[in-house]
Amino acid sequence: ITRGPGRSQSHKNDNYYSIDFALSEGRKVVAAESGYVVRVENNVPPGPQTSGAKAAGNFVKIDHDGDKDQSTGYQTSYQHLQKGSVKVSEKQWVNKGDLIGYSGNTGNVDPPAPNGHHLHFEVRYKNKGAGQEKYLEGVTIDSKPILDLKTGLSF
Predict the structure, then answer these.
(1) CA neighbor of 102 nearest in space, from 125, 124, 80, 73
(2) pTM of the full predicted structure?
């Protein structure tokens, strides 16, 4: 983990509870939980896109409360995927563990920045990240509570 909530290399504001996992390009990225795919970008070329709509690079956003509405429940977002690697489409149901794409080098991932090549993973509640700590209690990655993940932790 190169960035995580409340750490020295933490995200700011609405991205506060985002986690960056250092990954080489071409690693499988799977859905953390079942839900409907509500948004996909799959055509951003490799290289730094440091601001605006392309900063996330190629990504998948999944809604986990079953109603396909990004404003009512939990969502996860997986950013900086390889161009053309996204394996899901909007409105598609995915199960926990399903392949959704491959790690890449798109968007704001310009090495040798502190985070370098990485998967940016977000958990949001009602389309908000900041101030949502109580909604993340009990959320785990590899059986580890998301709020306990530390910079430098390896999986």
Answers:
(1) 80
(2) 0.79
